[in-house]
Amino acid sequence: MSDPRLDALAETARNRGLKLVRSRVRTPEKRRFGKAGLTDSSGKPVFGMDSKGPKASPDDVEEFLRNLGAKDWGASLDVAVMPRKRKAKPARQAANDRDPAPEPVPSPPPPLPKPKAKPKPKLRDAKPADAPRLVELIRFLGHDINEKQVRKNLAALKKAGETPLVATLDKKVVGLIGLHVMTTIHRDSPVGRIPALVVAKEAQGMKLGRLLVDAAEQWCRKKGCKLIEVTSNDRRADAHAFYRHMGYERTSIRFFKKL
Hints:
alpha+beta; 3-stranded antiparallel beta sheet; Aminopeptidase; 2 domains; about 15% strand
């Protein structure tokens, strides 16, 4: 049976020009069960490989690919510097020429313009007027929805006291997080949930995800929750790494059935 997590790692490896090699051991008790490694396109080992095959854990492979992606991104910021053209030297005057005229004093350069301050992200409740932008963000998560349904859902969530939060930059919505609290028969306190979290591609890398999650956790504490859980698609390995970094643990598998 295919392992969704290893499938996601294989796709990430392909995006890096690498190939994920999975262990052929199928017995859980054996040493190399569930192990993986990476090779280049020619089959040369790159990470987590030895003479007997893959030996790294999926977590180690995921960490290597994430760091490799960061290095690739940093390298893409290099700027080529063009060689400076040398100024032509003035022709040397003969010894019997008149004294050269004094060089003009250069005027001081104009003051540099003050750098424009970077916009600071702000959080607020989602509004019906945000519906067009929210549709774009929600579709980025893979959910097909229209503006009319988003407005209807916002009205219902506001009535339930669970209006989602949005992050803005220069008044433009660039992030969304859903909020939900539920009472269960087997818990001594309500359970908070983050049903959706998305940051626009152009705003990633600005720690907006952390800002939104911190706000959701604070909201859940005010509701009396002692536990908060997150729903995340199996294919989103980068999101899983983010939640682990935020202190979340994987404790269960989610099942669903369409009705």
